[in-house]
Every structure is written in C-alpha cells, then in structure tokens.
C-alpha cells in the first residue's frame, strides 16, 4: 500500500485499536457483512468451550459499516506487527486490503476477513445459537458477552445501526 496506512475496524478494533490513530472516518465496505462466524478459542473462548467473535464474511449485496483508522506516520511497522499478533493468532482471519467508502471518498484499508475454509469458521449459526454461545463463553480476554456489549455500544455511539448485534446484545443480557 502506498501512502498512509489505513485499517478498517468492524468489531473490537473500533473500541480498542491498539495502535496510534491520527484520524478516524466512518467507512463502508461492500460485498462483506459483520458476522459472529468465527469460533474464538483464544480471546473469548477456549478450545474446549469456544466463544464467538466477529469477522467479515463475504456475501453478495452485503455492506458493513465500521471505522477506517489512519495510523500515525512512523508507526506503520509496529502497527502491522501488533495487528498480526492479535488478529492472525490462529490463521482464521486473512489479511486483505479492501476498498472502503467514506464521506470524503474511497480509500484502501488493511482489513481482517474470515477464511471460510478454516476450521474455526461457523457461518450459518442461528441468532439463538449465537446468543447461547456468547452468553456463556469466557477466554483469555474475558467474557464473550463483554466483547459483544462493547462492540454494540460503540457502534451505537457512532450512529452505526446493526440490528443483528443490537438483538444479540439484548438477548445475551436477558440470558445472563
């Protein structure tokens, strides 16, 4: 990628980027949707009792609205190293550069998408199944429900509607 390094966040990166950010823009990526389609065996679950984390899953006609972050100049290498340690811990995510749309025009952003051929991929779970798993799973970074609630709250603060996440957050609160 030429020019500044942009990173597209659609889940925990929105509220915990973990790198120096000098600019944020609401951004949309087409052809992908935010989905609890990845079993978490490290951060929000264990191999014995996996949780679920968000991933971008390819889908015709879909869109996902999130945040594009411009990384501080000079911090690109450290940011890439940190993101790869965090996001590629089990190889379920693929690192891609996707074209995202912002109010000030399109840009290319580093993005982590799900590998649908990976053993942690679990697309197609019903909303009820997702709620059941998220309500009970706990991993190295804490309860799965906290991940869901924080993501849903930050999306709401940004004015980004996600009816599925809103329903899941309410349903998991009801169950816990």
From TrEMBL:
GO terms for molecular function: glutathione specific gamma-glutamylcyclotransferase activity; transferase activity. GO terms for cellular component: cytoplasm. One of its GO terms (biological process) is glutathione catabolic process. InterPro entries: ChaC, GGCT-like, GGCT-like_sf. The keyword Transmembrane does not apply. Keywords: Lyase, Transferase. Its EC number is 4.3.2.7. It is an enzyme of class 4 (lyase). The keyword Membrane does not apply. PANTHER family: CATION TRANSPORT PROTEIN CHAC-RELATED (PTHR12192), GLUTATHIONE-SPECIFIC GAMMA-GLUTAMYLCYCLOTRANSFERASE 2 (PTHR12192:SF2). This is glutathione-specific gamma-glutamylcyclotransferase. It comes from Tabrizicola piscis.
